[in-house]
Design a protein that fits this description.
Strand order of the largest sheet of chain A: 1-2
Strand content of chain B: under 5%
Order of helices and strands of chain B: HHEEHHHHHHHHHHHHHHHHEEHHH
Oligomer: heterodimer
Mean pLDDT of chain B: 87
Largest sheet of chain A: 2 strands, antiparallel
Mean pLDDT of chain A: 85
Number of strands of chain B: 4
Helix content of chain B: over 70%
Strand order of the largest sheet of chain B: 1-2
Shape of chain B: globular
Order of helices and strands of chain A: HHHHEEHHHHHHHHHHHHHHHHH
Radius of gyration of chain B: 22 Å
Helix content of chain A: over 70%
Strand content of chain A: under 5%
Structural class of chain A: mainly alpha
Structural class of chain B: mainly alpha
Shape of chain A: globular
Chain lengths: 481, 501
């Protein structure tokens, strides 16, 4: 009991801090509100400390497993939350009157992601998923006066509940068939069951329902329709949070379930998973070609990236798992970086249209150079971390002899370069358009600037010297059964 | 830091320095670009003294473990194949930087990208790790995209993205080849020398498939027909100095890649591919020459003549004889020098008149004696006049191809190599036809009074072109020193390929 509690102490502490911060909104004094930012940072730091000092290993309550693999994603989730807090620090609409609510919702979502990273039981998977997404429903609609924000939130909510329903349905079938919600026991049931047993049909049906639920959250094609609208409508820092934290939490539980327990290649579902991956990449990329809103463009590109990350799962080997970890980390940095630049530009020009970034290199050369680096990293051009991530995933796929998948993914990478370079083209080749009012030009955005600079330097540093990062990931890819 | 790393990374150091300086200090940017690419050039010249011509293997090798987790090393070195190309790259970069001193728009960015490009190109030539090779190969694309897209001609933006996507498409094949090789080799490695040493492991269908993958990756860069469609647009739209680099160095990366990677790693597949390569070379020669003949724009003409000239190099390579290989490498160098100076010279006249139409001029010879003289030397060298550089290498390529040991025949009894070599010689004739027509229209005949105010070349332009003209004459009269530099490496390469039969 005590040992189990120690294992989930970081999650308990973070939930407590989130509750505390929620109450902080009762104070209306301006100077007290400023404390929210620092307190939340402090809470994240303590949680981080509890996680890594000393790193715990074991199983809590038979449902949550603490292993290097989950630790990696928990650290990632904490860092992404810190990053989001940094970039939303100067945003009056978010960190204004309801700063406590805003921050506590983010922290709750992070707790959900942390539970997801550890889940080894379908119930825990379900709980973690809900805890991750319910705060996001609210956050997506946080700008109450903005119609688009509400629209995105409603769409996300409807789709989210539907997918939860589908998933629960699948889980109930699995429980009925196997008599357990533990990943391990379900796997053992599958191993024992003879081929040709009628129950297997039901079993695969249940797996499909479960996959559909996870697919909605991962925005895999054909469950991706909500993504662009929600991304466009949500406040941009939240969009960035969407594309990173949620993705990481869901992918880690998917990997745990389908590469460690119900191995997809053992179930003979490799082609099915490969098809999902190909569809997701291709449709995401093709749809991104025609987008004129930067957030929508990045939304479709995030769908495409989800498809590429999925290749690591299709490969189903250790390299693939490491590739997923590396890719999640790289995607975290480059996507947050790109969104930070979008936030910066939209604060200057009050527009998220692609034309707002026109001629940026003449107005603010360092900013345009950083955006270029993020876009190069997203396109997978060396020597940025994005390249290593892509390469690692492809490496895994080639080891699993999935040549066709790599070929298709590489062709997709070329399509992606086209739309990423549309942005580059606007930034560097065109004259600035002064039609938009250059409001708040003199205001400094320390949090935002710091976050962007940090992301770009990490991308470049790890891109040129990836060794230490790779050995950390290799050490962290251990899964405790 | 050791010599090769110094040569490779000097330019990028300069680029970072430029990035730190304010935008207004135009002269300082020019000076820094000149200084750092100058250091690179002088160091590569200094290497000449200690370069051992008798050794076929790698020299000045540096080997540092870079990413042990993936088995990637920082492994660089030069041999008789890559060293001449390194020299060519540093020389052309330096001269192009001098030639681009007339750029006044966004000078800081221009030299930043230019220096980055130089590091990328040098990196490809010195890399001995396939992975490192690929990284430099990709890194090079981005600066080129900006250089064409910002400072180019009317269609620059389209040309830039077309170039970028086209060459990226080529590197897709290369990446698959790299990964396939890694998993086939035992122990797994990216090291080109180790891969070459264990090339007997690459047998069966595997070697043909991977050979073709890498071949397509490189062929797009050369460009080999039918992958040439990016070239005219990019060459014509790019600013003068960038055209020089494109034609002078970038195209060689393709042929270099074939000789460094495709041939030695898959000798059997390479010999099997000899006749298709021969036919592709023949198409390049004839097609490039005919299309060049149809051009009115001088820059386009020179661009298409590049396709034709790379065809000669391919012809020499297809022969798999020592003469042919020496000729091919020499042709790469000569084409860099001659076409580089042609692009510079076309740029000179374009800067003054803002037209490149050969019909717009006439009788310039009397008004611009220096320009006419230098241009005539370059043109004559390009069409293969004996006594100038172009003739030596083209002759060697033809000779090598004609004496090829291949037993293949076409039309039931004619030896394939002799047949296509003979036909390819027609290419020389067509080249002579269009270049002489250009000389006639532009420099001879009645003077077009519209250009009465035209001034001859200034000091900066002369500094940029004269070294190339001098080299053209020197190599034309005494090519021995250059051939001796590559000879031992080439003969060991030939031995490696033909020995496996």
């Amino acid at each position: 009991m005590i040992a189990s509690i120690r294992l989930i102490l970081p999650e308990i502490f973070l939930s407590g801090s989130a509750l505390f911060l929620l109450g902080w909104d009762a104070f209306i004094q301006e100077h007290l509100k400023k404390w929210v930012f620092w307190m939340s940072f402090f809470a994240l730091a303590i949680t981080f400390f509890l996680l890594i000092h000393p790193p715990q290993e074991g199983v809590a309550f038979g449902m949550l497993v603490q292993d290097p693999f989950s630790l990696f994603f928990k650290v990632l989730a904490l860092f992404s939350a810190g990053f989001i807090l940094l970039i939303s620090r100067e945003d009056k609409a978010l960190m204004g009157d309801y700063a406590g609510t805003y921050v506590s919702l983010i922290l709750f979502s992070v707790v959900g992601t942390m539970f997801l990273s550890s889940a080894k039981d379908l119930l825990m998977l379900f709980l973690g998923m809900e805890l991750t997404t319910i705060p996001l429903f609210i956050l997506a609609g946080f700008l109450r006066n903005d119609l688009r924000s509400s629209e995105g939130a409603i769409k996300f909510f409807l789709v989210g509940t539907l997918s939860t329903g589908l998933m629960l349905f699948g889980i109930s079938y699995l429980y009925g068939l196997t008599g357990s919600t533990q990943f391990k026991e379900i796997y053992e049931w599958f191993n024992k069951t003879q081929l040709g047993n009628g129950d297997l049909v039901l079993f695969f049906l249940a797996i499909l329902f479960l996959l559909a639920g996870l697919g909605f959250k991962l925005s895999l094609v054909p469950f991706h329709q909500w993504t662009p609208d929600t991304y466009e409508g949500a406040p941009t820092p939240i969009t960035a949070f969407f594309s990173v934290s949620r993705e990481a939490g869901v992918i880690v539980v998917t990997v745990r379930l389908f590469s460690e327990y119900l191995k997809q290649n053992q179930m003979g579902m490799t082609s099915f998973f490969a098809l999902l991956s190909i569809l997701t990449m291709t449709i995401g990329n093709i749809a991104a070609l025609r987008q004129n809103n930067l957030k929508r463009l990045l939304a479709y590109s995030s769908i495409a990236h989800a498809g590429t990350i999925f290749i690591g799962l299709v490969a189903g080997n250790r390299l693939g798992r490491e590739g997923i970890m590396l890719y999640s980390l790289a995607y975290f940095l480059m996507s947050l970086g790109a969104f930070s630049v979008v936030i910066y530009v939209s604060r200057l020009k009050n527009s998220e249209d692609i034309s707002s970034i026109q001629g940026l290199s003449k107005e603010n050369f360092p900013l345009s150079l950083m955006m270029l680096f993020f876009l190069l990293s997203l396109s997978g051009i060396p020597p940025f971390l994005g390249f290593w991530a892509k390469f690692y995933v492809f490496w895994a796929a080639i080891e699993a002899k999935l040549f066709y998948l790599v070929a298709i993914a590489l062709l997709n990478a070329i399509i992606a370069v086209y739309y990423y370079f549309r942005i580059v083209h606007k930034m560097f080749f065109q004259e600035p358009s002064y039609s938009q009012p250059l409001s708040s030009r003199l205001e400094r955005h320390y949090g935002l600037e710091f976050a962007t600079l940090l992301a770009v330097s990490l991308l470049l540093l790890f891109g040129i010297f990836p060794q230490s990062l790779l050995s950390w990931i290799k050490g962290s890819s251990v899964i405790i059964p | 830091m050791s010599t090769l790393s110094l040569i490779t990374f000097m330019p990028v150091l300069g680029a970072l320095l430029i990035l730190l300086l304010s935008k207004e200090k135009v002269y300082l940017h020019r000076f820094i670009a000149l200084l750092f690419s100058g250091i690179s050039f002088i160091t590569s010249i200094a290497l000449f003294c200690s370069f051992d011509r008798a050794t076929p293997g790698m020299q000045f090798v540096e080997k540092i473990s870079w990413i042990p987790a993936m088995g990637v090393q920082y492994h660089v070195g030069v041999d008789g194949l890559s060293y001449p190309l390194v020299l060519l790259t540093t020389l052309l970069s330096l001269l192009s930087i001098i030639a681009s001193f007339n750029i006044t728009n966004r000078v800081k960015e221009y030299f930043f990208w230019f220096l980055l490009l130089e590091t990328g190109m040098l990196g490809v030539f010195v890399s001995l790790d396939f992975f490192l090779f690929y990284i430099f190969w990709e890194v090079m694309l981005v600066p080129m995209y900006f250089l064409i897209g910002i400072w180019g001609g009317p269609q620059k933006e389209y040309a830039a993205i077309k170039f970028f996507l086209y060459t990226l498409f080529g590197s897709v094949f290369l990446l698959i080849a790299i990964l396939a090789l890694y998993f086939r080799s035992e122990p797994h490695t990216f090291d080109i020398l180790q891969l070459t040493a264990q090339n007997s492991q690459f047998i069966g269908k595997f070697q043909y498939v991977v050979f073709l993958l890498s071949f397509i990756g490189f062929a797009i860069k050369v460009p080999v027909f039918p992958f040439h469609t990016w070239l005219p647009l990019a060459h014509v739209e790019a600013p003068t100095a960038v055209s020089v680099i494109l034609a002078g160095v970038l195209l060689k990366l393709g042929t270099y890649g074939m000789m460094r990677i495709s041939f030695p790693l898959f000798p059997q597949a390479a010999l099997w591919f000899a006749v298709p390569l021969l036919i592709l070379a023949f198409i390049n020669i004839i097609y490039g020459a005919f299309v060049a003949m149809a051009q009115k724009d001088m820059k386009k003409m020179v661009a298409y003549s590049s396709i034709n000239h790379m065809g000669y190099a391919l012809l020499g390579m297809a022969s798999f004889t020592l003469t042919g290989f020496n000729g091919a490498v020499l042709q790469m160098i000569n084409h860099g020098i001659i076409t580089g100076s042609l692009f510079l010279l076309v740029g000179v006249i374009y800067d003054r008149t803002h037209t490149r139409d050969i019909h717009a001029f006439g009788g310039l010879g009397a008004r611009l004696p220096i320009y006419t003289g230098i241009m005539t030397v370059a043109v004559m060298a390009s069409l293969g006049l004996p006594g100038l550089a172009g003739f030596v290498s083209e002759f060697l390529c033809f000779l090598g191809s004609f004496t090829s040991a291949s037993q293949r025949v076409v039309f039931s009894s004619i030896p394939a190599f002799k047949f296509f070599t003979a036909l390819s010689v027609i290419g020389i004739l067509i080249t002579a036809a269009f270049f002489l027509r250009m000389v006639q229209k532009v420099f001879l005949g009645k003077f077009n009074e519209k250009w009465a105010e035209l001034k001859d070349m200034n000091f900066r332009e002369l500094i940029a072109v004269i070294p190339l003209t001098a080299l053209t004459l020197w190599i034309g009269v005494a090519p021995g020193w250059l051939i001796r530099m590559m000879d031992s490496t080439m003969s060991s390469l030939i031995h490696l390929i033909t020995g496996v039969k």
